Automatic annotation (TrEMBL):
Its cofactor is heme. Coiled coil: none annotated. SUPFAM superfamilies: Cytochrome P450. It holds the Pfam family p450. PANTHER family: CYTOCHROME P450. Keywords: Heme, Iron, Metal-binding, Monooxygenase, Oxidoreductase. It comes from the Eukaryota. Belongs to the cytochrome P450 family. This is Cytochrome P450. It comes from Salix udensis.
Length: 382
């Protein structure tokens, strides 16, 4: 038997075993209400269980954590890939994200997986670079002029797009996908706040927006790199420039070219008018002396990522919960009516009940339950 035939025979055998064990694992997983930590095999780790539960990943992870006495589970990945620590233990979360935050940096594998999309943005860096971007962003968001700009953008999007869209649907008794509507609402807002660019994603007719579609594709493929059963597959596809990796390369290139075109236009505008009154985040960064296009692009793309799906997911769950709890809905409406005479920002600060109900909604349904790129570390939390 030649070496080629031997390798082919071994490969076929391994694939057959993998499929058999996967089917067995899947049938067992559906019959066990409180699964224990997935079994780990030599070389392939827990890839069998990961593959078997690939279409119910979040629920599977939640089940694992709930069945663990410590609310913490370790999953061993394929071959030499790092193990993943999944925890729902509040003490562990506080340890990693607060008391010992500095000890849990993003590893090189995480940075490589996200670099094509996020570059050196705040979600993909560590140490001094992370602190610098955080301080810079915190300073800009704390300014009254930016806060006023945010109020204006959100109020315009509400009054001219969201409310008319919902009112038209109510008048015609039409059915809307609320999550899609709120994603469009959030995307328009965050793009205007970050770039000063209006994608007009929530116009009547709900048009396709090329920038939004490209951003979605880059986000999905980058996230998929983490969720792949075989972690090295995306690297092979990237080397060969095929499949999803080819699409990610093209999507990231279009996003960055789009961003750089806007940056050039902003620089020209600011050279004519350097006023910081009610301007977007990009203009503020450029005006403060941060003119490197790659640096600013990375920051702004990270803000769009942070502000779009998180906002829409939180609002979607919130409205769903309100629809299921009429007493809470009545209290929220009562408070809104009482505060409606105040300026927008001031009235929001005084809405104690509404704020508490929104926080409870996010506690029950976290807006980012499984987005690994949003975590400080790949040791993410369900």
């Amino acid at each position: 038997m030649s070496m080629t035939e031997l390798v082919a025979s071994i490969a076929i055998l391994l694939v057959s075993i993998f499929i058999f064990v996967t089917k067995s694992s899947k049938s067992r997983a559906s019959s066990i209400p409180n699964p224990k930590a997935p079994k780990s095999y030599p070389l392939i780790g827990s890839s069998v269980a990961i593959f078997a539960n690939r279409n119910r990943r979040i629920q599977w992870i939640s089940d694992l954590i709930q069945s663990s006495p410590s609310a913490t589970v370790v999953i061993h990945r394929f071959f030499l890939d790092d193990s993943h620590v999944l925890t729902g233990n509040p003490a562990n979360v506080q340890h990693m994200l607060k008391t010992q935050f500095q000890n849990y940096e993003k590893g090189s594998k995480s940075r490589r997986a996200l670099f094509d999309f996020l570059g050196n943005g705040i979600f993909n860096i560590n140490g001094d670079s992370w602190k610098f971007q955080r301080q810079l962003s915190s300073h800009e968001f704390s300014t009254k002029s930016l806060r006023k700009f945010v109020e204006t953008v959100v109020d315009t999007e509400l009054s001219q797009r969201l409310i008319p869209t919902l009112s038209a649907a109510a008048a015609s008794n039409a059915v809307l996908d609320l999550q899609d509507i709120l994603q469009r609402f959030a995307f328009d807002n965050i793009c205007q706040i970050s770039f000063g660019y209006d994608p007009a994603y929530l116009l009547p007719g709900l048009p396709e927006a090329e920038f939004a579609k490209t951003f979605d594709e880059a986000t999905e493929i980058s996230s998929g790199r983490f969720n792949s059963v075989f972690p090295y597959l995306w690297k092979i596809k990237k080397f060969l420039n095929i499949g999803s990796e080819k699409r990610l390369k093209e999507a990231s290139s279009r996003l960055r070219q789009f961003a750089k075109n806007i940056i050039k236009e902003k620089k020209q505008e600011l050279s004519k008018n350097s006023s910081l009154e009610s301007v977007d985040l990009l203009s503020r960064f450029l005006s403060s002396g941060h003119s490197d296009e790659d640096f600013v692009t990375d920051i702004v793309i990270s803000f769009i990522l942070a502000g779009r799906d998180t906002t829409s997911a939180a609002l979607t769950w919130y409205f769903w919960l309100l629809s299921q709890n009429q007493e809470v809905e009545k209290e929220v409406l009562r408070e809104i009516k009482e505060q409606s005479e105040s300026p927008v920002y001031e009235e929001v600060k005084d809405m104690v009940y509404t704020h508490a109900s929104l926080c409870e909604s996010m506690r029950l349904y976290p807006p980012v339950p499984d987005r690994q790129q949003g975590c400080k570390t790949r040791r993410c939390f369900a």
